[in-house]
Amino acid sequence: MLDNHSGDNDFVTIFTDSRNGFIQFAYSYLGNMEEAEDAVMESYVQYWEMKSRKERTIVNAKAYIFMILRNKCIDMLEAKKQRLQYAEDMYDRLAGEIEMSITSLQCCDPSELFSDDITRILTETLDEMPGRTREIFYERFYEQKSYKSIAESFGISVKGVEFHMTKCMRVLRKRLKDYL
To answer: Could you tell me the CATH number of the domain that includes residue 116?
Structure first.
């Protein structure tokens, strides 16, 4: 049974009196206003659902909602941390593939690279690539431009150039596996 007698425990009063403070609290940890507002609203909903189920007596509803909000912020930050770890792992994997591509290219004998079969496979494969990927590959290997220069000319990030190069190199490695 819930104690719902005093003004402090009145849901509307609590909502209007504490919403902005709760949002500022959540924002100070989450760093994103939309996420902070969502966390606060979800905390109010969780409190309201618990209150309607009459699971327990709440003496200080504001403190209880604050505890829910704190836990939501922790959960959201933990999820953000996991996403960042995944992104970092993905970046490391792609950087490893790029490094392997660079090493593979450095070990290639240029005279063998331009044999008729390899040239034909290379041309066919590049013709099948999406336009931007093909253009980035040409600028990198035929015009010898840096990733930064390519990124600037296409108006994309260096990571975007790395993505296109990795995609292209992966396909080329498959198609040229008998020649590498």
So the answer is: 1.10.10.10
